[in-house]
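Cross-check.
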Amino acid sequence: MKRLLLALAALLLLLIVALPATTWWLIGTEPGNGVLLDRVAPLIGAQLRIGERRGDIADALEWRDIEYDDAHAHVTIARLVLKWQPLRLW
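Predicted model, tokenized:
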């Protein structure tokens, strides 16, 4: 029983540390943003291509040569910049 409780406590601690660390990596780093985009893009049901990606969502994100294609529209964007400032929402 003591081993089980110790294992559960270790698992809980791992989750408490791993979840915020993974979230920070996905949002706060350029490689993490690439992984996030690669996972999310197929879910939109259209073709999304981004020529150049720089920055991260937590600070400033810049994408160049974006193309979006679906059955109803073709959209091309030369440059898109996102400067996320969540504290300015309040």
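The longest strand covers residues 60-69. Residues 2-89 form one domain. Passed to J.P. for a second look.
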